[in-house]
Amino acid sequence: MAPSRLETISFTTFYNIVNAEPRYAKTEYHGVDPTTGDPNWDVPVATAIDVEDAVAAANKAFEQWKTTTWGYRTERIARFKDALEAYKEEMTDLLAKETGKPRQFAAAEVDNCFKFMDWHIGLKEPKGETYDLPEKYVVNKFVPLGVAAAICPWNFPLLLSLGKVLPAVQMGNAVIVKPSPFTPYTALKMVEIANQAFPPGLVQALGGDDKLGPMLVEHPDIHKISFTGSTATGKKVMAAAAKTVKRVTLEMGGNDACIVLPDADIAKVAPLVAMGAFFNTAQVCIASKRIYVHSSMYEPFLAALTAVTRSLKVGSSNDEGVMLGPVQNVMQYDKVKSFFRDAQEQGYKFALGGSGDGDSSKGKGKGYFINPAIIDNPPDDSYIVREEPFGPIVPVQKYEDLDDAVRRANDTKQGLGATVFGKDEQLLQDVAERLEAGSVWVNTFPDPGPEAQFGGVKESGIGTEFGTMGVLAYANVKSITTVKG
Ligand code: NAD
């Protein structure tokens, strides 16, 4: 069916969505266009009253929605897809404006939303188990759990918020989306458009200040938190959720390792590793943040990686052929600069970048541009190896012995993703098995999709998103035992 414009949506006025109505407030905030440093549109700061109203509307909507069939809910997701497709171009422009990402990658994020929607539309209802025993029947089934709050980050503000809405509603729940204050715009519009397909109160959005997240996490009538963000905040969410024994899915930070095996084809692998390290200006939870290369090929590999990275064009969204946009916000910009400063103060060798006053900013306008940098073999205990920069600076380290490389790769409290490159298929699988990570990609840059479970081990998270288990993350398990005769 061709997408139709069901209602006109303004892409220059923004508000929260409570019970299918726009909700304004006396106090407003705004994101900043990272390309220019100029303010983006004003958005209302949700109040405690807005939270109460949204939670009440969500619980009311849930009472009815939980009685609908999987087929009905899936058909509504298909309608939502049609509605969103009608605004594909506007959403792409808005996403590029709020994040600064190159237009081609903003378009790819929007396209990815439709892939996720298609996957949900094709998904069969996950069933539990039944046991027909001589004396009784036992039915173990999945039931919706109520109202979920989706607490979202700023790096993929549209896809990661949609990625919480779809499984929540498909499993029979209501959901309140809380976008990052840095990037509220596409998430608010996505929810507004969702209201063309779902009943009032089922999908709502509340954006606001630092008080809003804790208010949602502590609210007794919210039953699940799906959080994506930093490990530090995720720990606070988990502690606060304990008070009401909320279900939590926590998708948190990573310090992902990439291991290049001695038999890897340098010319083929270097561009993939560069993509894994620098895509989205390295503001990717599963970006390669520590690259381990065998000593036999270290120098030529580093030279190839440096050459590829040097060729990546840094610039504004609409610049021709641009690969890296600005860092999304000034807080993150300052954090990334601290990694440059530390590497310079410690005297580490930069294979690429690192000139100037602690960063390699291009200084375009007032935007938060940083040229990508590669650090040549810093020590294991360096700041750049131990911590997640979430910006375009990456260490490449030498290893002699593969066991030692795997040990160093696993020597972190985090365990989100990892990549391994080489030719020997058995060895690749063996290394993939030994890496302590929720997702491992073999011979490709990190490349998640709707069908692959996505989640971290250790301090990178609890539970997974996407895939069938990502849908079941919005279910309780209920067992009914009936004695025969
Ligand atoms: P963040 O932790 O600062 O914020 C994430 C969200 O939590 C925002 O919406 C924020 O407003 C909210 N928040 C802040 N304090 C809160 C509190 N006390 N209670 C409830 N909510 C609160 O993270 P960020 O800077 O937006 O994102 C970057 C981090 O997210 C990186 O560490 C990155 O690795 C991680 N990340 C992880 C994944 C993943 O899937 N594992 C995906 C993207 C980003």
UniProtKB/TrEMBL annotation:
One of its GO terms (molecular function) is aldehyde dehydrogenase (NAD+) activity. CDD domains: ALDH_AldA-AAD23400. Keywords: Oxidoreductase. InterPro entries: Ald_DH/histidinol_DH, Ald_DH_C, Ald_DH_CS_GLU, Ald_DH_N, Aldehyde_DH_dom, LUC3-like. The active site is at 251. Pfam families: Aldedh. It catalyses: an aldehyde + NAD(+) + H2O = a carboxylate + NADH + 2 H(+). The keyword Cytoplasm does not apply. Residues 28-480 form the Aldehyde dehydrogenase domain. Its EC number is 1.2.1.3. The keyword Oxidoreductase applies. Belongs to the aldehyde dehydrogenase family. This is aldehyde dehydrogenase (NAD(+)). It comes from Exophiala xenobiotica. The lineage of its organism: Eukaryota, Fungi, Dikarya, Ascomycota, Pezizomycotina.
